[in-house]
Every structure is written in structure tokens, then in C-alpha cells.
Task: structure prediction
Amino acid sequence: MEISQIIVNSLIRASELSLLAIGLTMVFDILKFANFAHADYAVLGSFLTYSFNQGLGIPLLVAIVIAAILTGVFGIGIDKILFKRLRTMGVQPVSLMIVSMGVAIALRNILRLIWSSRTKTYHIAIKQPFEILGARITALQLEIIFAGLLSMVAFHLLLHRTTFGKALRAISDNRALASACAIDSEKMIKWMWFIASAYGVIGGTMIAMEHVLYPRLGFDILIPIFCAAILGGIGNPYGAMLGALILAFAENIALALDLKWLLNLGGLFHFESIQLNTGYKPAVSFVILIFVLLLKPTGILRKE
Result:
């Protein structure tokens, strides 16, 4: 595979994963627990987008916006019903994490009940791919990269140019001090859930558009999302972006490598060209995750 194709494929993958990893790391940064249901929120939004677009004929971009809003409200609702009550009771973060696993399992089965287990695809016109510096890319993939970059710029502006962003960073640094400065922490947490869930919908929908949509998709992308967040430094949104980019390059380089030099053991065996199947992408994420936890568990951009 040409290096230009590896770069293009990695940018596409990073654009998808970073939006999901940002939401995951935001929740961890503020509430100090890993939300295992985050990817399933994204899949819920993807199914809503699919129904609005394919079933009701709503334009795709409008359908994504509506689904993101509804999923954001859903995220706030789950927090009010479960997580907020548990926080008020003073439970440990590990208990919140276990509850989020239960929410993920329940939501996954609800999706299967409503939309069935069959895979679904968006009815997007197939167009001839074009070449950029020797790399083949479709119009959809180019739109995914553009949407990812635009969403990350919007997140940066939200975090540094709005009152909400400044309040959220204050809560992250010192929640008690932020409350003493008349910042309503619970109100900011609601908006945090909304934004984290909405961003997840954008990332999840991009993955579903490029591949296929099914209820178990959230579980299948959970390890790469966690890997990107931990690699960059869990709790740091910019680390999540960097981690997604590094992970995407690692996955595509691993798929492009010819492993016969390793398996031949210096000429002892005579294997032909051997390359990893795309189905092994989660294995690459898992291996990276193990090495990060062993060598630098704080990640690259640890939030001080």
C-alpha cells in the first residue's frame, strides 16, 4: 500500500474515532468514571439518523443534527435518572462505571428490539473515487475528513471562546472552587452530557456511513475509542484527538505491512506474502492499549 493511501485511510479513521474519544474523555475528566455506554449512545444516534433519513426522507445533514440533539437529551436523561442520583448518594466512580456497563447492555438490546439485528446501510450514491497524490478517496470519505476537522475546530472554540467552555474547564480543575465562584456544576454537567453524546452521534454516524450499521457496533468500536482516549491522556480532549490520530496510523500501517519477514524466521520457513486482515484492527488497538498501560498509563498529554 502506498504511503499516501495509508495517510488518507488514517485521516478518515482518526476523524471518526476522535469525535467519539472526545466525548468519552470529557465525561471521565468531569465525573471521574469511564462511561462504557458512550459508544452505544453514538449507535443510538446513528440509528435515529438512519430512520430520519431513510424512513422519513429527511436530508442527511438535517437528520444528523436532529439525531444528535435527541441523543444529547437522552444522555442528560440517563444522567438524571441514574448517574446523578448515584453521585448524590456518594458512590465510588467504579460503581458508576459498572452501572454504565449495564446501561450499554440494555441499550444494545433495545436497539436490537427496535431495529432488529440485521445490518443496515445508508443509501448513498456510489461515485467513482478520485486520486490525490496517488491515494484513492471517495467523496464520502473526503466529507468525513472535513466534518471531523470542522467538528474539532468547533470543539476548540467551544472550550476556549464560550462561557460554557470556561466554566467546564474551571469545574475540571477544581470543582469546589468553581462552585464557590457561583458556577452551577450540575447545570454544566448536563451540557457536558449533551455535547459528549451529540459529538458521539457525529462520529458514530460517520462510521456507519462508511461501513454498516448494526446494534452491536458500539461494542465493536469500544476498544479503539478507549485506546485513543488513554493513549492521548484520558481526561484531555486534545489528547483524545492525538490518540485517535496515532491509533489510526498504527492500525493502517499494521494492515499494510508484509509479515513474511517475521514469520520466515530468517529463511527457516518460506511463507508467501502475509498481511493482516482488516478484521484484526481491534487487535491492533488492544495491543497498543496494553503497551500504553504498561509503559505510560498517563498517556501522551496527561492533564495536570
